[in-house]
Specification:
alpha/beta, 6-stranded parallel β-sheet, globular, about 425 residues, homotetramer, 6-stranded antiparallel β-sheet
Chain lengths: ~425, ~425, ~425, ~425
């Protein structure tokens, strides 16, 4: 890719996830010979950056690898001549997440920090920063790829394709890989013998067909899937009904509970909020414990506790993706990329989450045809929402934001939408300059 | 159209609406010279048919017109050589409607007798009957047009195009004409100077653009539309928010409150149900009063009270449509017809509600392009629902019905969906043979 | 439309067609009360403008109507506050047409002054002028409609939609109306009882279905159409083969002979060119005779001889269209307009020729679905050509022009394309500044 | 894939290509451990089958591999439990090809044995046989894949998807691999560093983008491509013009000369036919020499002379494809498969030639979006032709066949089409029972 050696830049480098990322790079050093790893953060995150960065240095040192780890607050100098840039930033940190989850709850509405009202505001805070990074990349490392695993990954990817000309962008999610693991468990086989045709949007992806050693075993899997609690660590796992799964015919993801088991999700959320245990609050506690661990100068590897953090396998998936692109391995991974007609139910140039073959020239989506009618409309509705949402995120237009909030399938109510919107704009004011011009 | 004179058949002829229909035919006799009007009903409706039919005969007699009015329970003999067939039937009568509205309410879910869970069951009861009528028409009057104004008009139209080869079908609704009236009022002009580009689905139709004397006045209308309570008689009319309407940019219909003002709709419904005043219950009372009036042998015209009935202008719209087709007047009316690409956001061969020019060869949809993104997804989701719903209505498959109920945008919950489905299947058992094979 | 009275501007007013146009306006004065008619031309056409313009004045005077006829070389002052603008200009006059037809013939290739190599160059000369007029209109009469009947009408319409934001544009053609006349003749009925569903491109339009009094009589018409010589005055009318027409299943237009009877067309052309009787040469002779007649101060009406001119009914069709728009008559006419999904086989925003209902807000295309496969591909290929052609016309890029010439279905040969292109660029140099920057 | 060992069946096993195929299997034995190879042919080909089959046996024996080679005329017993079936049959043998090429030439029309009039008849002869084989496979080896390299590969693939429910079908062509080789040569690098995004139809495929080590080098390649004679052995290689290639912007294949250099192709053909050296005649001579060689019992490997045969690398490509599927190698190869939206310019369910990732579950097309407008229309036209052609091939309808012949871009003339059609139907009568029912 570049003669000088391989340079990777991680923006939001002070994240508690970074040790997993570093571990991923270390164990892949053989075929992903990184020479420079730059961890970048903002002034508010400097302390964390130092803690995590020093752990990263110790990990590399212990592994005995010639990877230089740089810590910096100067994003532009880090980006210069980068080969891969990863973004795992969290504008407003976990405090903002707590607001994303708890404010809508006051109005009896799910916060849902990725595709719901909370996610909408996370998008409002995040998208301008990502677009800014891309502006820098156009100038400083135009051949680099940007691998994003900041949520809402769907909305962020949509914003990049809808509001910039940058194409070298991949949005990553650990939900599909979890579904492969789940299917392998149900079949009682190793994961690498199972492949799933994924199609949909981020956190709204479906497994259309499942193959075992190249044979279509969708029916068997769906049969076993009934009553399954397969989900993500951060989503309450109520079981799926047999008849519903049979009628649906394809595999939903854990996040689909928000649209297919709405009441249970609301009930759990209300309880959690009452107990002061919204997901953000829980994670905040886990994180502060993690940072205590990270500070220990004797710690030279990723601590086991990180796996409780929720985004397990996220960073590993990122390392995997980068290694696959670097080595042109052509394995098939579901990522967020430009549709190009792969999902015929959605516009050609929008962001989708779909099985792609990963090549040196980037992820190439596999053509899937139309989605089955029983799920096509919901996916299209979410895409409508995402597009309006990114328009609001970029323009800072109040009315557009209100429409986005109202048409979100978890809201459906302009009156509540307005109350939530107003309260959240105020609460996140500091990070939403586009709305307060 | 036919040499023998013009024969019109009205199935569900015992409906309380029939006098309006008859009045409509009488006042258009000059250019719609009907020779035979056949009112058809089922045995359970015989008494009503007699009452209404005799009023119809008195009305025609008073008008001094040579229209023969026939009353019959024998649908097939009525259909023989018909030119136009209208359907205004109500399988299970108003008692069924009361169940459609009140059972979902028990679970905190809107019944919504057209596009909601109630509408789903109205579809389950109605679609097989309509498909049966079409089978008869293929044999007995293959050149006739079927004008349906039985709800759920969208689902019924979809079922015809999805499950038969019959093309001469129009689904009629009085919502769009009400929107034209509303826009004319807002502009302070006569209705006939106003035209609206309608596109969407039945009870989910939007006014994309408004013209006054051929000039696009959409902006002015939308400005005046803010805060408007424009709605249907049977939908609680909470005002639209200014910012929401500005953000939406196009004109919603009254029924959109179910998707954009969900909470208010639920609250009103819960109150109504508590008071024993669900719409079905109210209408039942109105209807029994109407039938008392109809019995009066001195009554020889449509009584004023009928206008309180809710579906005002419905029958008039039907007469209008028939007259326009008969005379090839080429006026532009929004009806439910096959898409043919008119709304590019939806499949080519599905049912849509869209502005059509009405010609002797039928309604011809005007090409509208894609719907604006802020509404595209919701319409697509409803279309997904409608298609799965008609598949369930025709097959009687339980799982398909469960999926349809769950993906309805007013439900979103497989657990509640199952409870409602089970209770409603039991409640309507008598009229749902396809589910009890 | 405007309080001040109705102002119409005709660019290329010195055309020999103008008397027909004026006659059309005179006979429609009752419902199209024009107050000002401005005939505009370029300095090179001043003499003709005077001759034709004075005839126009005499015609109006004889009719005793208060229409002011203005003759001018100042286009901008004419356009000011216009209600309708018609364009019937011919850049380079008939001499250019002769070159369009004869130069390709040297290489054994059909010139075809509308969709062939000749048409390509007519487009190159005409499109920049039309785009210039639109720039003026945006400034001087932004509410006016531009009705174009300058060929190549398809390419010109495509250029407007592809390279400007102007939407109030209609491209007119007399081919479809001729097909209605032909079908009426075959059926032995009056034209106004026949309607045809037209879909395709200019000079590549098909009659998909034919209705008589609203009844689909396509089969009968196609049966009678076999062996028909139905064509335009300017196209040699070899008969269609029975089996071919039966296989095609829908009605081709006269110009389809270029794609379905290529050899006969080439043979006739070669003969004509040899005899010095290319269509351009013939028309030139007819025209100079016409202008002799026009000079006669005693002539106060359109002379019969004009009907030999070829474009018969063209101007009448234009008057008709303007009257229909002015009066919102909603008759159904095929015109060139933006697709909007009406023909699903073609891009949403390209120019198509399709049956439209003519309203005060403009022509509204009727949704036709996909074209039958047996013709879909040819139409798509021509659309590809038209789009590349307009890109070349606007950019003046040589390579793009060469590709356009090569992919034209009458050429298919880059070597001949280059020879023709080079010779024609040189021959028309004076009128193609964009290629000689 | 199957426990019993790997069984491959080659229909048309007596073909002169077979030794290449066998060589391919032998050299891949390590990762493609075939246990049974069945060579099947028809009675008329029995002698050749014996000759080639015995050579195949000697080759396997010399390689010392435990592959059983079976020769049979009983297709059904061969197909039983097969894993892969390859078809390389030639209905009517080379004599038929000579007719395909020379009859159209009499009328000044290119025969073109794949996408032209000759190809149309090759399709008429071949498609019914392929559909028959599929019927057998549905019964005898429903899990097997059919790998077809019988021309016209595009039309045959279209027929399978359009007229059967069989999905496990791949159409193979050696044109794209030749384009990769050509591009590598132009860049002066090894083939395996070059990847091309292929999209289009068989023998009408384009290289949209070229990558070198993952970097987009399309511009450099196109620059070097100018004036290139890159072509197939069997297509006269006149150079491409610089300006044309620059305007086209993407890489055509050798067969595109038929549509972009028509005259040169016709001239060469006329010469060849005059000299009795049509491609079919040349190949016939080469083949009879090959069979002489094959008879030699001392020959135990593929003779060098086979490479002159024209379809070089064809069989190798087939072995490669089978090995990739068997081993799930996920390399990217262009094959003929179902579109599924990969090429947005074409219908979802038609056959396309497009870059696919080759997996154990079959080839998966990469989503390419729309084709560039300069080529979109020609490809769509050819697809129209292919679809009408397969309808004629299956139905045996004369009129449909005539339309197919006329709309072929190399014909464009119903009169010539009819003459050619009639003469060819007569000439091939024996192999076209569907037309002589």
């Amino acid at each position: 890719m570049s003669k000088k050696g391989l340079k990777i830049v991680t923006i939001g480098g002070g994240s508690s996830y970074t040790p997993e990322l570093v571990e991923g790079f270390i164990k892949r050093y053989d075929h992903l010979p990184i020479t420079e790893l730059w961890l970048v953060d903002v002034p508010a995150g400097q302390e964390k950056l130092e803690i995590v960065g020093n752990l990263a240095k110790r990990m590399v040192e212990k592994a005995g690898l010639p990877i230089q780890v740089h810590l910096t607050l100067d994003r532009r100098s880090a980006l210069k001549d980068a080969d891969f840039v990863t973004t795992q930033l969290r504008v407003g940190l976990l405090d903002a997440r707590v607001k994303d989850e708890t404010i809508p709850a006051k109005y009896g509405i799910l916060g849902q920090e990725t595709n719901g009202p909370g996610g909408l505001f996370k998008g409002f805070r995040t998208i301008p920063v990502i677009l800014d990074i891309i502006k820098d990349m156009e100038e400083l490392c135009p051949d680099a790829w940007l691998i994003n695993f900041t949520n809402p990954a769907g909305m962020v990817t949509e914003a990049v394709f809808r509001h910039t000309n940058w194409k070298k962008f991949v949005g990553l999610c650990n939900v599909p890989i979890g579904m492969v693991r789940g299917a392998a468990d149900l079949l009682g086989v190793e994961m690498d013998r199972v492949r799933i045709d994924f199609a949909g949007l981020n956190h709204m992806v479906y497994g259309l067909r499942t193959y075992l050693d190249g044979k279509d075993v969708s029916k068997e899997v769906m049969e076993k899937y009934k009553g399954s609690r397969a989900s993500m660590k951060n989503i309450t796992a109520t079981p799926w009904g047999n008849e519903f799964i049979e009628g649906l015919g394809i595999m939903p993801c854990g996040y689909h509970r928000y649209y297919y088991q709405y009441q249970a999700m609301v009930d759990h959320q209300q309880e959690d909020v009452k107990k002061g245990e919204s997901r953000g609050q829980v994670v905040k506690k886990v994180e502060s414990e993690l940072f205590e661990l990270y500070k220990d100068v004797n710690l030279k590897e990723k601590p086991k506790q990180l796996e409780l953090r929720g985004g397990a396998y996220y960073s590993d998936a990122a390392c995997n993706l980068i290694a696959s692109m670097y080595n042109d391995t052509k394995d098939i991974q579901p990522v967020n990329t430009m549709n190009m007609g792969a999902i015929a139910s959605l516009p050609m140039d929008c962001a989708v989450e779909v099985s792609c073959v990963i090549t040196k020239e980037g992820p190439r989506p596999l053509a899937m045809g139309r989605l089955p009618i029983q799920v096509e409309g919901l996916v299209q509705q979410m895409k409508s929402f995402e597009q309006v949402a990114t328009d609001a995120a970029v323009s800072g237009d109040y009315n557009t934001a209100l429409v986005a909030m109202t048409i979100n399938p978890l809201v459906r109510d302009e009156n509540k939408a307005k109350l939530i919107l107003d309260e959240m704009l105020e609460a996140h004011k500091e990070f939403l300059p586009q709305f307060f011009k």
